[in-house]
Each structure stands twice: as structure tokens, then as C-alpha cells.
Amino acid sequence: MRPENQSSVSQFLLLGLPIPPGQQGVFFTLFLGMYLTTVLGNLLIILLIRLDSRLHTPMYFFLSHLAFSDMSFSSVTVPKMLLNMQTRQQSISYVGCMSQLYIFILFGGLDNFLLALMAYDRYVAICHPLHYTTIMREELCVLLVAGSWMVSCGSALLHTLLLVRLSFCANNTITHFFCDLIVLLKLSCSDIYLNELVIFTVGGMLTFLPLSIILGSYICIGNIILRVPSTKGLFKTFSTCGSHLSVVSLYYGTATGVYFFSSSWDSKDIIASVLYTVVTPMLNPFIYSLRNRDIKQALDMCVNRVKFFKRQSLNPFVAVRSTVR
Description:
- With 325 residues, the protein is mainly alpha-helical.
- The protein contains 10 helices and 5 strands.
- Helices cover 77% and strands 4% of the residues.
């Protein structure tokens, strides 16, 4: 590209969602409600796991980190989208765009690893139940989560640094509602061969390795089920793994539709990415609360505690009124 066709970009323009101007208010209310549901739902999951000692197990330790990751993943993109819809200002600074990209890749990659760790935990619990406490020690769980954070941070930093070195053309319009790596690469005037190579090698490895762990774990679980064909064992297995399988299907299904079956970022691909970045993090708390007996019991216990303390706080006032009479 000739030098006169290049420019130093200080900001980008986010076109946002393809919403008619007259319906901006309706969609703003809709997405605000979805975002608040995401934050409150995932915070509730973290709080329940923290308060209920029965949930202090490896599975729920991983789930608490997944809830935090989902909440952060949605918080990277949705607040900026809502701000742009409300103020009608579509600009985002260069530094802000690179920061958003880094955090988006970080928590997207972290979700992959956490889902794989949860699948491995179910594999050990079902296929090696007598050795579960020995294998899934607290130290190992902390080490696995810490390793997932480190690898995700390293991957996000690598992609961001490789993008920062590129030059961008005079056209700084992003046909999306957030700074996505693929869209930004299309705006660059520089050679992006190295970026694409890293995406296919490092990005592919960090995506398919967790997916392979998930598939391998459930293949082994399926073999165990087929060896002992009992209705009770089948029901117990589905009650244990059903929530995780639902989340995995939702996460990888929407991500595959966005990044593997989209040739160009048109309105359909942008709407599909809403499912990946907004809807999926919102639905995860519902999936785990509606399909998980332990979470339901913890929620009931928390509600009963609140009612008990509320009654206790009202008792002194009742006693005072009785004395006065």
C-alpha cells in the first residue's frame, strides 16, 4: 500500500447493530435488561458458591471462575454498545479499542479452558469416583485455574501486540459493535500474514485443545454409561453433566457460527455475534440454576436465611409494641 493511502488512526467508528433509528430505545432497554441479568445472575452464582459449604468442591470452584469470566466477557462489549446507542456517538479511541480487544480475547480464551476443566472434573468423578478426592486436590484445581489465566493472558497479549504493529488505512469504520480481531485485520494496510499465522496456529491450538479435552471426557463418560445400562445411573449422570453439556453446546455452537461459517461481516454475522457475546453469558446462570439440584438447594437455603434474619430484625419492634399496649 502506498504511503499516501495510509494514516495514523487515533480512533475508530463502531457502526454497531443494524437497528432502525426509530427502534433504538426499544433495543437499548432490551440489551440493558439482558446485561443486568447477566451481571446479577453470575454474581448470584458466585455468592451461592461462596456462602454454601456444600458447594466448596472442584466443580463449583471452576463454575465460580466461569461465572466471573462470563460476567467480564459481557462487560467488555455491552456497556460500550449501550453508551453508543444512547449518545449516538460511535467513536472509540485507538487505545480503548486495543484494550477492549485484549480483554475480549482474554476472557474468551479463559472460557474455553474453564469449560475443559469442568469436563475433566466430571470425567474423574464418574470414571474414577474412588480416586476423585485424590486426583482433584485443591492445590491441583488452583494450579489449573491459574494456568488457564496465564495462558489466556499470554494469548491475548500476543494477538494485541501483533495488531498494534500494523498500520491502518484512512477508512477507520468497524462494521461491528465492538473491536473484533478479524474485522480490525481487514482494515489494516500492512501485511497481516504473521497475524493470520498466529491465529491459525496459536489460536487454533488454544481452541481445539480444550475442545478435545471436552469431547474426550464425554466419550469416556459415554463408555462408562454403556457398560452399566441402568436408568438410575443414566439419570444421575445426566443430572451431573446436563448443565455443563448445555453450556458447552451453547458456547461452541454460537462461536462456531460466528467465526467459522461467516465469510463477511454482514448484518447476519453481527446478529449471530450477539448470541455469542450477550445471550450466552446471560443464559449460563439460568442453565446452572434450573438444571442443577445443588444450586437450587443453595438458593433455597440463602432465601430462608434472608427470611429468618428479616423476622429476627422485626421481633424487637413487635416486642416493644406489645409492651406499650
